[in-house]
Amino acid sequence: xxxxxxxxxxxxxxxxxxxxxxxxxxxxxxxxxxxxxxxxxxxxxxxxxxxxxxxxxxxxxxxxxxxxxxxxxxxxxxxxxxxxxxxxxxxxxxxxxxxxxxxxxxxxxxxxxxxxxxxxxxxx
Length: 124
Hints:
Blueprint: H1 39-98, H2 100-109
């Protein structure tokens, strides 16, 4: 075979010699395989991981709840202020619609004297 045709096949120089597979003798010192630690150590490890997970979840939930309580109280205060302002504006609207003295007072604030000016009213 030519050298250029051999580029896709392994050459004999690149192939490693096969290795021997050796088997170990089973351990006779341990009763149950390779387990040298007592069972309670693994249970303690699992329990401690579970406890740390529960504590971290609860701390995160507590922190987010605390933030939401602060935001709720702040928004409740803003709502109360806006409701008070809304009631004051509704009272002012009612007075301007019904009380001529309030109308004159507001007209003087902006510089109009209603007693002196006469407005012609078109008649059909």
